[in-house]
Amino acid sequence: IAICDLLFCPEFTVSSAGNRSRDEVDELINLDSCEYIWEKGVGFAQTPSQTPQHHHNRVELLRLILTCCSESIYLPPTNEAHIGGNKWVHLFTSPENRHALPLFTSLINTVCGYDPAGVLPYNHLIWADSKENLVEMALQVLVVTLDQDLPMDGDNPDGPPDNLFLNYLSRIHREEDFQFMLSGITRLLMNPLVQTYLPGSQRKVHFHQELLIFFWKLCEHNRKFMFHVLKSSDVLEIIVPILHHLNDARADHSRVGLMHIGVFILLLLSGERNFGVRLNKPYTATVPMDIPVFSGSHADLLIIVFHKIITTGHQRLQPLFDCLLTILCNISPYLKSMSMTAACKLIHLVEAFSTPWFLMSNQTNHNLVFFLLEMLNNIIQYQFDGNYNLVYTMIRKRTVFHQLANLPTDCSTMQKNASKKSKKPLTRKSSQIEDESMEGSQPARPAEPGTLKASLMKLPRIENLTEDVSAHPSKKLMDQLTQSLASNSLESGKPIAAVAGSPVQPGADIG
Fold this sequence. Notes:
The protein is an all-alpha fold. The chain has helices spanning 2-6, 52-68, 87-92, 100-112, 131-145, 164-171, 175-190, 208-221, 223-230, 236-248, 256-270, 273-278, 298-312, 321-331, 340-353, 356-360, 366-382, 388-396, 398-405, 411-418, 420-423, 475-492. Helix 2 packs parallel to helix 5 (131-145). The radius of gyration is 28 Å and the shape is elongated. The N and C termini lie far apart (89 Å).
């Protein structure tokens, strides 16, 4: 409580209100801290003066609070040591802390009101920004104090939580407050991804993981805020950074937590109709990603990134496959048009997951095929007219569905398919040149030395299960078709019924 008093001490962490000085206040306990909220924003319309020394003092006090609230890392990893929750967090967010409301408001306004981009380019190389450390520390304190596993009030277990921070968070309802928070979060998430004509001219912040956790807490505890996010295209300013970080972290074992929180946010948003509708907005590639170049909508971007995660991610991401395909199922009835690239990637997943040995290797693998088939059914039922690329790809890959419909069910064949992977490793025969990635993109970096090893059963990467998928036959395949047709015609004495210079369409009857 004394630390919280110091966070609102005039001339130490805040500027004096009006003409009053710290000498005129006998005790900090008599101070009305609501008059000393740090920043303009939620619940506070004034713009208080800021000084670098005040920022430094706030950072040191918040760092002390964060150390106290992190007692879990100092306790032994036993259940008995963690019974009763974190008492420091409970005290900090309880009614015993009379500064709970102004402190919560100050932290949110500090984070959401921060704009790291200055007026002049390269200004961060000339002037130090004392506020960046304050914003990062305030965000970490918010994430710790908004822990939903805190104990509830014993007298009313079904009532609101005893955590006042969660209570205040769920009671925010003004549209201008929602827009202020959403604008601040999207601005900070997009900051490290912004491309300018002058390289390195803007300050880059790197606390996206804490921002995503904070956004998750906002959507989880304040449904009105989530509906505000989904009612406009501003939600796409959240989706693009999330997909960028998911694609970038797919090969790094140490960032598996970032992968989980990003997927959970998308899963939560995908349950609402507006999310699927907003994804139909055309996507302009302003953020370089290690994915194939395509022309389409944000839904195409989502499908291509998910395909990249499933086929090239590390083994610890396998439990997320269900969530990724559930997201695709949820948005499928609203996808008006799918690009050829996204359609090929989607059918490639069907081809990979419907492989007999993969289906037989685990008792839950068949669920992945169910999700994909349900997605295809939804698109065909509700959005057939605009998805001609997907229909064409399905017809061209119809043998995949024929093989899936005629899966063997006898025990001997099932055991043989389940043991195939151990006898002969699958290799991929490439039928086309690798997809060209976006200009300026960097490949996903593998895990740094010393990170955790995968504990799940090792499986060959999905791209090794089948050949590359292409919308058109490759040159090698065309040559094979031409040679086989020529040999057949010579044996039978019939000429090839094809016009000179015209390509031979796959599946066409020639005779």
